[in-house]
Amino acid sequence: GLMAAANEGAIEGVKKNPRAWSHGVCIEQINRVEEPNEFLKRAYRHGLIFTRLHEFVRLGHFGAFILAESGGYGTDLEKALIHQLLQFEQLHVPLIGIGEMWRERAEWEKKWITDSGCANPQDLDLMICVPRAMDAVPIVVEANERFKQRRAAG
After folding, report:
1. Three-state DSSP state, 7
2. Around 131, how many Cα atoms within 13 Å sit in the side-chain half-sphere?
3. Could you tell me the pTM of the whole model?
4. Collapsed DSSP state (helix, strand, coil) of residue 2
């Protein structure tokens, strides 16, 4: 539902910008195949979680943004990977946590990770927490403008 809605919105954006893409990075499981939703321009299929994560980061590395919506262990794993890549300056995109889950997660990270000395306090600032998806829009627009400027500069 959520991913299909995001992909449908991206396809709507193609009307304004034919270069817009809607990607799906799917994991094929042993007993079940996750069918890509109908709004994808391109679906990447992976049999392993590790290769899916690599593809996820590879696609996001080129100026896309990462939105972390509430979810399960997979979403948490993606968030942790992106957070660490930002921490080591190997990725330069906004990491936006939408909703209460991510605000509480940031509090947990402060208590158990930064306050215990396992990371620097400023590493908490690498994830921007917002209460609603609409609150992420200005962050995404600004990140897109920076990406376009970097691309134009060559």
Report:
1. helix
2. 0
3. 0.79
4. helix
Nearest CA-CA partner of 24 in 48, 42, 12: 42
pLDDT, one tens digit per residue, over 60-70 is 776 666 667 77
- Overall average pLDDT of the 89-109 stretch: 92
Residues whose CB falls within 8 Å of the CB of residue 89, separated by 6 or more in sequence, listed in order: none
pLDDT digits (tens, 9 = 90+) for 104-146: 999 999 999 999 999 999 999 999 999 998 898 899 889 888 8
Instruction: Kindly tell me if the per-residue pLDDT of 30 is higher than 90.
Output: no
- Please give the pLDDT value at position 1: 58
**Dihedral sign for Cα atoms in the order 45, 51, 56, 59:** negative
Distance CA 40, CA 23 (A): 6
Q: What count of Cα atoms within 13 Å lies in the side-chain half-sphere of residue 23?
A: 15
Separation between Cα atoms, residue 44 and residue 20, nearest integer Å: 17
Report how far residue 123's alpha carbon sits from residue 120's, in angstroms, rounded to the nearest whole number. 5
Burial of 22 (0-12, 13-18, 19+ CB in 10 A): buried
Please give the Cα distance from 52 to 29 (Å, whole number).
Answer: 12
Query: How many CA atoms lie within 13 Å of 120's alpha carbon, on the beta-carbon side?
Result: 9
